[in-house]
């Protein structure tokens, strides 16, 4: 499951960055990958669709919001947590 | 070139369904934002807005009219009736040939689209009302104004997202200044507070779930409103000759394009528009006492707009007042500049500056006098009204006291 989540999140981010998944590592930041604010919003949407979850992300305060997008690894961890939380709830 | 006066004003918005009520709300710093009330609101993540409450369409329009008037047209017509009554103008005889109408809307009859998509997609019906097209079209409101008042000169609708009404009013100003018309009914309206309208906006993730707090460090997005603002723009000499009460004079207008990004604002584009409006008006930057900000309450707009004001006004930026009335009436998208022009008129005519309410924490990136939370008395000679749209289209009007 964890491997699968990581790979799928990386695939979404790689597509947004127009890179190969192999070039997207857990330490990469979205800024380094060349993803702008509109790209982040589109990636969050793709993640919600892929995992059928709701991501609490507000583009006004991306750094301070509940959804940590400081690195690819942080996003993977946040998605895993949301999947667990929203599975329990549902 | 001819001078241009404003001789009538009308509005419908979440604060009030007329100008006196709206100005009273501005003075009191009242908030028109609250829980949204429409079908399927429980399926939305964003559930607040500045909705027009207790809207009694049947009190204003008959059954045949209601079949043709989307909510944005209804708001427009009521505002136009107030504005034209206030101006005392009569368009009978040849006067109608010299009068036009230019209105802004970003999306026109959104409620009509929404309701009829439901009918065919959700309810599975294969038939819709025969008037869906004339009801939803973006120019419906302007057309109905021309018909109700007999305005037979130029008429059209402008769509530049959040700058629509300012572009419309700028066009009206140019048309009178150039001698094309003696009178132009100008302004704009929007009514997209419905399930489909808000669902689309949610996607951008720029909407606040709790409040509109422009320039406040803890702001977290925009809040949508609905309604209309309509004005009578009239050749100054024409207004003077008939002894009309002039609310304010339109002195200049400028529009610029960022040519950069479809959603992110640009300091340079905003600055060029403000500078351009003052150059067009032949007024020095030091003459400006008040700016009605675009002030959406998003992180991006507010810091960009403040930086643009600092760039254009230099030291004078600390002496002028700038407020965002969106904190009270919400963001009316294509109608917003029209409702906000009322705050400029109030500043010039009544010497009362509408506040930015919801202001809680100073933001060093918005370090201007934003008239926090309480209206203020001040004599203002010149006011600017800013509108900066998605798509990078900026439109700024300069007005002066009469």
Largest sheet of chain A: none
Largest interface: A-B, 12 and 16 residues
Distance between the termini of chain A: 18 Å
Number of β-strand runs of chain B: 14
Identify the quaternary structure here.
heterodimer
Provide the gyration radius of chain A in Å. 12 Å
The name of the CATH superfamily of chain A reads ACP-like
| Overall pLDDT confidence of chain B | 98
CATH superfamily heading of the largest domain in chain B: Thiolase/Chalcone synthase
Query: Structural class of the helices, strands and pairings of chain A?
Result: mainly alpha
| Shape type of chain A | globular
Describe the structure in your own words.
The complex is a heterodimer of chains A (90) and B (402). With 90 residues, chain A is mainly alpha-helical. Chain A has 3 helices and no strands. Chain A has a single domain, classed as ACP-like (Non-ribosomal Peptide Synthetase Peptidyl Carrier Protein, Chain A, Orthogonal Bundle), CATH 1.10.1200. The radius of gyration of chain A is 12 Å and the shape is globular. Chain B has 2 domains: 4-241, Thiolase/Chalcone synthase (Peroxisomal Thiolase, Chain A, domain 1); 252-400, Thiolase/Chalcone synthase (Peroxisomal Thiolase, Chain A, domain 1), CATH 3.40.47. With 402 residues, chain B is an alpha/beta fold. In chain B, helix 4 (71-87) packs parallel to helix 7 and helix 11 (267-281) packs across helix 12. A 10-stranded mixed sheet of chain B has the order 5-4-6-7-1-8-14-13-9-10, sandwiched between helices. Chain B has a two-stranded antiparallel sheet with strand order 2-3. In chain B, strands 11-12 form a two-stranded antiparallel ribbon. In chain B, 35% of the residues lie in helices and 19% in strands. Classes of the chains: A mainly alpha (90), B alpha/beta (402). Chains A and B meet through helix 2 of A and loops of B.
């Amino acid at each position: 499951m964890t491997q699968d989540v990581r790979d799928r999140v990386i695939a979404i981010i790689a597509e947004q960055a127009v890179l190969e998944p192999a070039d997207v590592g857990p330490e990469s930041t979205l800024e380094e990958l060349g993803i702008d604010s509109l790209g982040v919003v589109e990636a969050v949407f793709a993640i919600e669709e892929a995992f059928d979850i709701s991501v609490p992300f507000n583009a006004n305060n991306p750094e301070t919001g509940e959804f940590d997008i400081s690195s690819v690894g942080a996003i993977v961890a946040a998605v895993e947590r949301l999947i667990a939380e929203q599975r329990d709830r549902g | 070139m001819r001078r241009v006066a404003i001789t009538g004003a009308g509005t419908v918005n979440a604060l009030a369904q007329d100008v006196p009520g709206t100005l009273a709300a501005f003075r009191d710093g009242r908030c028109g934002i609250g829980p949204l009330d429409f079908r399927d609101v429980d399926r939305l993540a964003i559930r607040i807005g500045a909705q027009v409450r207790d809207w009694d369409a049947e009190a204003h329009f008959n059954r045949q009219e209601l079949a043709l008037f989307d909510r944005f047209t209804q708001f427009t017509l009521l505002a136009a009736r107030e504005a034209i009554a206030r101006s005392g103008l009569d368009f009978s005889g040849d006067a109608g040939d010299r009068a036009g109408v230019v209105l802004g809307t970003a999306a026109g009859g959104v409620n009509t689209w929404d309701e009829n998509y439901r009918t065919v997609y959700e309810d599975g019906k294969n038939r819709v009302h025969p008037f869906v097209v004339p009801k939803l079209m973006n120019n419906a409101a302007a057309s109905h104004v021309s018909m109700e008042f007999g305005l037979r000169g130029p008429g059209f609708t402008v769509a530049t997202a959040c700058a629509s009404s300012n572009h419309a009013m700028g066009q009206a100003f140019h048309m009178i200044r150039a001698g094309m018309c003696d009178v132009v009914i100008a302004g704009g309206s929007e009514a997209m507070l419905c399930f489909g309208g808000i669902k689309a906006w949610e996607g951008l993730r720029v909407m606040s779930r709790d409040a509109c707090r422009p320039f406040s460090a803890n702001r977290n997005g925009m809040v949508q409103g609905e309604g209309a603002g309509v004005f009578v723009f009239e050749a100054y000499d024409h207004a003077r000759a008939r002894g009309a009460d002039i609310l304010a004079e339109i002195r200049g207008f400028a529009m610029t394009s960022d040519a950069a990004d479809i959603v992110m604002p640009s300091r340079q584009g905003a600055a060029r528009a403000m500078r351009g409006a003052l150059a067009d008006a032949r007024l020095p930057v030091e003459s400006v006492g008040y700016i009605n900000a675009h002030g959406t309450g998003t992180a991006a707009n507010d810091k960009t707009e403040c930086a643009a004001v600092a760039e254009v006004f230099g030291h004078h930026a600390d002496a002028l007042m700038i407020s965002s009335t969106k904190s009270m009436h919400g963001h009316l998208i294509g109608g917003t500049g029209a409702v906000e022009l009322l705050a400029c008129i109030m500043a010039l005519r009544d010497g009362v500056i509408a506040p930015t309410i919801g202001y809680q924490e100073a933001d060093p990136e918005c370090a201007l006098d934003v008239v926090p939370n309480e209206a203020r008395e001040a004599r203002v000679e010149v006011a600017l009204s800013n509108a900066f749209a998605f798509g990078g289209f900026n439109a700024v009007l300069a007005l002066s006291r009469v």
